[in-house]
Structure formats: C-alpha cells, structure tokens
Amino acid sequence: MLLEVRGLSKAFGGLHAVQDVDFDVPEGCVTAIIGPNGAGKSTLFNLLAGFYRPTAGTVTFDGKDITGMQPHQTVRDGIARTFQTTHLFDGASVLDNVRAACVVRSRSNALDAVLHTPRFRKDERRSLDRSMHELEFVGVAHLRDEIASTLPQEAQKRISIAQALATEPKLLLLDEPAAGTTDEETESFGTLIREIVARGVTVCLVEHKMSMVMNLADQIVVLDHGQRIAVGTPDDIKSNPQVIEAYLGTGAGTTGATT
Ligand SMILES: Nc1ncnc2c1ncn2[C@@H]1O[C@H](COP(=O)(O)OP(=O)(O)OP(=O)(O)O)[C@@H](O)[C@H]1O
C-alpha cells in the first residue's frame, strides 16, 4: 500500500475539520476524495502533505511514518500537491516556475552555485531538461518564456501540475484540478491524469465535478463533517444511501458537487 491513513484528525479550536479518518491509497490508482463544502477535503490534503500537523492519527507513506513531517520533507519522500488556486511565482517565466521545483532533487549546495562547480552545472542542465520534459508532457512547452501568472487559468493549472511532476513524486495530490474549467478542458484534464498514472505516479484528487470523479477514480473516499462516511468504487458510492443523504443535506440536490 502506498499510503495508509489511520485515525487522522485535525481540530481548529473546537472545530473538528478532520475526525478519525482511515483509508488506504493503493499504488498505481486514482483515489478521489469527495464530500460537500466544508467536509474537510482540503484539510485532509494539507495533513497528508505536511502543511498541517495532525491532532491525532498517523500517515504512513511507502512504509515510512511521515506523520507531522513538514512539506519540504514530504516532497523529498515523494508526495507533491497542487492547490485549488494556482500558486505560481509572480513575474517569473513558465520555465523558471518549473525549474524552481527541480531544486527538490538537486544535489548541489549554495557553495556549488557560487563557484559554478561541475556538480552545479550538471544539476542546472538536468533541471532544464526535466522542466522542458514536464512542460511538454502537460502540453504547455510552447509557453515556456511567457510570464506564468498572466496566462489563462487552464494553462496555469497545467503549469502547476508540471511543477509538481518536476519534484519526481510517487504520489500526486491534485486539489480540484478541474475547478473553473470548461467541459472540454475538464475532459482534457481527465486525459492528462490518466497519462500521469500511466507514467507510474499514483494520484489522489479532490474534485467537485462528479462526472470527472466517476470516470477517473478507481476508489472514492467520501467525507462529511470531517468524518469518512464511505469508501468504495464509483458504483458503490453512487448507490450509497449515506452519501446521497450527505449531499442532499447540503440543500443542493445531489450536489455540493457539480456534474
Ligand atoms: N485554517 C483553518 N482554521 C480554522 N478553520 C478551518 C481552517 N481550515 C479549514 N477550516 C474549517 O474546517 C472545515 C473543513 O474545511 P476544508 O476547507 O477542509 O473543507 P473542504 O471539504 O475542502 O471544503 P470545500 O469543498 O468548500 O473546499 C470547515 O468548517 C472550515 O471552515
């Protein structure tokens, strides 16, 4: 099992944003985390990637206990995440945004950089090659010299995915990859996610667009009020009365989700 989550909890004061959550993420699969607004999905991602420290519980990744580790440590261990809204460096080119992420696998230190040692030059070449490879993979290599933060949302989302892939993850956490995209773009993100999995990267995603979740996910984990209320295949989840009830409780028909 690539990721094992046990009894994971996070409280903000008296609010239990994530409460006693258990689930496993098998290698080579797409696991979707769904639930109504405020269910705890983003908080759960932040716990997995080390942005928040859990109040209780454990996270085991690739056989190693990573509970409470910081993001710079989890990324080195092989967990990368993207955010609901893109976090690109203002004023930097597309290529430089992705090259910055390559530093995670860099072998040279500050002194190598100052002295321009062979090790530093080798790292620089490797970062450039890797960045171009990822930009081509996500389909935005032609935008390499553009200022990333001025590009349309869809391109920025692709660049964020290239950044995450440039850290050479085993597990990629995608926070609402299709939010704010057209139906056609959503479909194209679905294809990209399948290609990422075909490369051998396991994917875990939070997404409100149910058509995408149902098409892509091998496994769905459903949260409501911070608790895991169901886990199963898309077919199991579609017909689960507790899940239907949770979404109806949002007053949004079968949503809080979108189709
Ligand atoms: N840093 C924080 N401090 C206090 N409360 C927080 C914090 N982050 C999240 N919460 C609260 O925790 C609960 C879960 O929020 P979270 O953002 O994880 O839900 P979500 O399922 O991702 O929601 P959405 O689908 O709307 O993005 C909410 O009640 C939210 O207000």
TrEMBL record:
One of its GO terms (molecular function) is ATP binding. GO terms for cellular component: plasma membrane. CDD domains: ABC_Mj1267_LivG_branched (cd03219). Residues 3-250 form the ABC transporter domain. SMART domains: AAA. It holds the Pfam family BCA_ABC_TP_C. Keywords: ATP-binding, Nucleotide-binding, Transport. GO terms for biological process: D-alanine transmembrane transport; L-alanine transport; L-isoleucine import across plasma membrane; L-valine import across plasma membrane. This is ABC transporter ATP-binding protein.
